Task: structure prediction
Amino acid sequence: MKKVIASVLCFAMCAGLMTGCSDKKDETTTSATGNGGETTTTASEGGETSAEGGETSEEGGETSAEEGETTAATDEEHALSFGEGDIVIKVYAMSNEVPNMLGAFLEKNPDLKAKYKIDAMYCNNDGQGYETKLNAALTAGGDTAPDLYVAEADYILPYTTGDFASFAAPYADFIDNVDGKIKDAEIAGYTVELGTNADGKVQALCYQCTGGAMIYRASIAKEVFGSDDPAAIEEAFGAGSQNWDKFWEAADKLKAANVAVVSGLGDIWNVSEKASQTPWVVDGKLNIDPQREAYIEMAKKLIDGGYTNDTTAWQPAWNADMRGEGDKKVFAYFGPAWLINYVMAGQCEGTDAYGDWRVCTPPVGFWWGGSWLLANKNVLDNADKKEFVSKFIEWVTLDASENGLQNGWANGTSGIASAKDTVSSGKVMATAKGDMEFLGGQNPFDIFVKATSFASAKCKCEYDADLNGTFQDLVNQYAHGKITKDELMDKFNDTAEAKDIEV
Result:
C-alpha cells in the first residue's frame, strides 16, 4: 500500500513539473514505446505530427485520426475521442495505439459508435510519467479512474500481482469461457502468465507476441560466412543452443572483417534479461540469474574486444548502424517483429540496407515488449460499460477469427497499423502471411513463432523497473573500465537494500 501512497504523492508534487511525456521543442525526434508497439515521430518545428493516420497541428491544438478527434490537453498528455454516444468509456494508454484500435472497433460496429463515446488519454512513460498518472487515477477512483487501461511488459506486474492489482477485474467476470477461448486461440503462454493475478485468474492479455529473433545483414553474411541463408547463419551462431559459445566464434570472424557483431551493449542485454529463468528477487532476497550474471563479462568482452560500435539503444548512432552508416558495419540486432516494423524499416528506408536484412533463430531465446489490456473492476457495476469493455477486449485479445483485431494485425490489413506483426494467437499466426519487403521477401513468422517457444515470464518481478536500469548502467560503467566488478556489485546491492530487498 505504501507504493500506492507514494505514487499519489509523487503525482501531486510533480503534476506541473513532469517532463517525461512532453514533446521536445525545436527538434525532430523518433521514439519507440517500450512495448514495441509503435514508433511516433514528433516534428515540433513543423507543427505537425503524423501517427498512424492522425495529424496534429500545434497551432490549432486538434488532431483527427480516422473518425477520432484529438486535443492536446497539456504538454505532457494527449487526448483522443471517438464515438457519438452518451455513455463515456474513459481510457488510459501510453501511446495512441490502443485508442486507435477503439476508433477502428467503433467503425466496425455502428450501433456501438452511436451508443458510446471514447475519451482516451495517452502519454509516454519517460520518467515513469504514464505510470504515475495511471496510478494516481486508479487510486482516486470515481470519474477520475479509467474504465480501460493499458500496461506494458516492463511494468505489467504491479497491475496483475502487485500493489495495483486490486483495481482490475478478472476477465472471467465480463467475458464468458475465458480459459476455453485462450486455449482455442492458442494464446502465447508467457502473455497469459504475465496477465494472471495472485488468485490464478487472468485479468490482462496482450495482443502482440514478442518472441525475439536475430535480425542480420544478408550481404555481410554472404561475405563473412559464405551464405545468407537463415539455416547457415543459425548453424554459425548456435541457434537455440541457449549459450553464447558459437556466438563468440562468429563474432571473431566478423571482427576480422571489420564488422561489429552488434551495435551496442543494449542489444545483448535485451536477450540476457528476458532469457533469465529466475527474477531479481526470490523469497525476498536479491537473486542474480546466470544469464544476467553472464552479461556482466559479456559486456566487458564486447567493449574490450571492439566487437561493437559502442552505441546506446534508441540514440541516433544506434539508428545509423541499422543503415550501415556507423564506424563499422553492424551484422545483427536482436528483437521481435515490432523492432523490424516500427524501427528498422523506417530507419533504413531509401538506403541499401532496406531489403538486405534477414531473420533467424537466435542462440539464446528471449522476448521483448508487449501491451496488456485491463478493465477497471468498477465497470462491472455498470451494465453498459461492462458490455462495451467485454466486446472490445475480446475482439483485441481473444478473437482469432478473420474479423478479430489480431488477424488484421498479423496480415497488415487492420487499417490501424499497415505493418505485418506477430500476434499472441498461435491460431492466427499459423495462417498469417508475413512476407516482408524489408527482409528481401522473407516470411519470418515461422521463426518468430519458434522464438515464442523460448519465451517465459519467469524473469519478471515487480522490482524490474527499480533494478534493470541500475544494473545496465553499472555494467556499462564496468565494461568501460570506470568501476571494478566489486564496485559494481556493491553499488547494485546498495540499490537493492534501498528497496528493502535482502542481499
In short: DSSP finds 20 helices and 19 strands in the chain.
